[in-house]
Amino acid sequence: MTTSSLPFCVGLTGGIGCGKSTVADAFAHHGIDIIDADLMAREVVKPGTPGLDALIDRFGKGILNPEGALDRQALRTQIFADPKAREQLESILHPLIWTAMRAAHAEVKSPYCIMAIPLLIESGNLNRVNRILVVDCPPELQIQRAMQRDHASREHIEAVLAAQASRKQRLAAADDVLDNSGSHQDLQTKISQLHQQYLQSAALHA
User: Which SUPFAM superfamilies does the entry mention (predicted)?
Assistant: First the structure.
């Protein structure tokens, strides 16, 4: 199945603390199918999957918990500060994740779908979606929200931000920018407007 024959797809992305999950949930309430990259990343490394077997072959059984499932903290410890190990991890997981997402895309029942991909800009896979929606807010608000949500230190959140694409890079790649610095009602109004826009785009795409 070619990309053009698949339902119209909006790639949803944004930095940590910008509110991507809130936005995805709002589109879901409009009846739109959501394909979540983080969820797919967990599915492809469940016990017994080729993905987990490949990780064990590369990183050893020390990445497993006592139940035989992936211990994500143990894996993060192994790849932390080791760019080569991180690249090897990505080379194993990314093709599996994209294959799973493409399969989910082929099963979409709504007029269009949202692919929620936190690292869409960083992955360089911009051509896998029809349109890019970036959720944006001022950096200081982003940091405060992430600290509160994750119960993390400012230093930790700033380190995560430093490892992600910059705000400038995300905005440069965006077809649409959703400002999430205002009220909840303001955000919902903007999402409703985008929903109507995407319905029109999907009709032309069909």
Answer: P-loop containing nucleoside triphosphate hydrolases
